[in-house]
Amino acid sequence: MWLLLLDNVNLVRGNKYILKDINAVFETGKIYAILGTNGAGKSSLAYLIMGINGYEPSSGRILLDGEDITNLSITDRAKKGLTLLWQEPVRFQGLTVEQYLTLGGKIKVSNHQIEFILNFVGLSPNLYRHRMVDGLLSGGERKRVELASILLLNPRYAILDEPDSGIDIMSLSMIENVIDYIVKHGGTVIVITHREEIAKLSQEAYLLCNGSILTQGSSDRIIKYYKDRCDECSHVNLPSLEEMRI
Amino acid sequence: MISTIDQRKEFELLKRAYEKAGGDASKFLNKRVASLIISGDKVIGLNGLTGIQIFPQQIQDGVRARIVVEKNTIIQTPIHICTGFVEKRGLQKVIFEIEIGDNSQVRFVAHCTFPWVEEFTHSALALVHIGKNAKMYYSDEHYHSDTGSVILNTTTKAVVEENGLFVNNFVLTKTRVGKLHLDASVELRENAIAELSAKVKASKLDQVLIREKLDLIGNRASGIAKTTVVALDQSKVRVVNEAYGVGDYSKGHIKCEEITKGEAVDVSTVPVLKVMNELAELTHEASIGRVNANQLQTLMAKGLTEEEATELIIKGLIG
Questions:
Q1: CB contact under 8 A, B293 and A53
Q2: Is the complex ipTM higher than 0.90?
Q3: Distances from the Cα of B161 to the Cαs of B84, B188, B221, in angstroms?
Q4: Domains in chain A, please, with CATH?
Q5: pLDDT tens, residue by residue, B42-66
Q6: CB contact under 8 A, B303 and A75
Q7: Hey, CA dihedral for A182, A184, A188, A189, is it positive or negative?
Q8: Contact yes or no for B301 and A89 at CB 8 A
Q9: Quick one: CA dihedral B306, B311, B315, B317, positive or negative?
Q10: How far apart are CA A32 and CA A71, in angstroms?
């Protein structure tokens, strides 16, 4: 069984803990939700797992199938099957959707596969494969292109940072299909979301508050906890002692 | 079309160089495509079409050509201009006087091919006049030798009359630059539009000086001047983009993007905006620095190395 494990990970900037005492296990073939209010550290956790510059753990280890990947580069982690969907994917001047999806020809895929994947994320191949991945794409279109790119990578671990942001509510089923597709192809999905419909797809969830894992467990329970207590929490990201004792 | 055996050989050499650089030389032999082929100081190919007249003339070390597109002429197929030099040393001067008649529309595809030169200077001057309601697109791509010893001085001075359009694209990205001095300026009358664009990749000891200038004279004239440069190794790049707002409601935008890679690159940009009419509006944007970190990391998170990601980003920027 593949396993991604965070072992007592801390991320400190200056005197402030961005992430504190993170212990988490992500098993293969499952869907995990990361919940938390704004500023709780969800995206930081995603960047830390992916190895993004500036998010190197101050202490602790990240293990993939027992191998310590804490000091591996982004590229090396990606080659081991990790990938990240950014909350706001960056634009690329002069690259067509097709060039972007194939990473300039690095990924060998057939025309049929490109058409299939674009259709899968709700983009007509005729209209989009030769469009530029630049500022002329709307936020939603850009997000769909990024989802298509993730699918073509066939990742073992896909960290999706708010895949639904920028996507109209009528297209949530597309996001669900993307997550389902990754899992059916043997991957694990770690999804950061504020949307209940997306969180409910997961089997397990972690609730982050002020950089720490406040609680974890079955998604139903964590979602209920989040809805009951975090939505109207008067001390956002400053959990009370009572909450810390859960 | 080709009058002597020597010229035929020269044509074959140019054709080979042109195709090596990715061009489609079959257009030069197509009677339905207007074309002008210059090698050194000789015209070795010339084909006009109805509505287009080309008057070439040999001058010392080069060729002067007057190209006239008659009024109300719309040419669907681009006019091909190939300027080449097949010797190793020398000087080539090219002067184009281009007159686009009122209501006409024409597209030029120009290639300058100097693949074997060792010590060579190419001086090009284009004097362009675009009539009322006329549109002209000029795409100028250069292929130099890899010695970095080409000196290229290219100047474009254009005047665009009422409601006219001028789009000028200069590209030198596939080979070494050598020393480049590019100076493109356009004067825009009422409602006229211009887009000046330059894309250059400088490497090793290449030196680049680019100046693009918009004179927004007429009311509601508008223009954009944009420069994209990738500077590698020890290359030196200076970019000065200027816009002058004179006409009522004239609008200009200048943009310079310079990507640097190499510890010894020396790159700068100076935007010059001058409004001489309170109703004019000018803007600029500029960036100099390494490849955007978010772009890099996005591609690296898909498995590309930093080098591969940089290469892909640069490919997108400059083609």
A1: yes
A2: yes
A3: 32, 7, 10
A4: 3-238 (3.40.50.300)
A5: 998 899 899 999 999 999 999 999 9
A6: yes
A7: positive
A8: no
A9: positive
A10: 24
